[in-house]
Amino acid sequence: MEIVLALDAGTSAVRTLAFDRRARVIDTASRTLPASFPHPGEVEQDPALIASLAVATLREVASRRGAGDRVRALGITNQRETTIA
């Protein structure tokens, strides 16, 4: 089966969704993304953890989908105005 994957690194979770040719969601995986608040008005997240969770959700979906699926595209979205320094 040909599928399209969407990887979303949001403010509270990282998730992967798999869609079939008719744009129906056929599988999902999600991990909670913690944040720290070092000072009033500041929020920090660990970029290495974001990457690790992204890989984990992609692998989880891939393991359930099996070798018969062919990924035709991968869309990636993240938090607006994100900066890693």
Automatic annotation (TrEMBL):
Pfam families in UniProt: FGGY_N
GO BP terms in the entry: glycerol metabolic process
GO cellular component, one term: cytosol
E.C. numbers: 2.7.1.53
InterPro entries in the record: ATPase_NBD, FGGY_N
Stretches assigned to the Carbohydrate kinase FGGY N-terminal domain: 3-84
Keywords for the protein's UniProt record, in alphabetical order: Kinase, Transferase
An MF annotation (GO) of this entry: glycerol kinase activity
Sequence similarity: Belongs to the FGGY kinase family.
Name of this chain's protein: Protein containing Carbohydrate kinase, FGGY
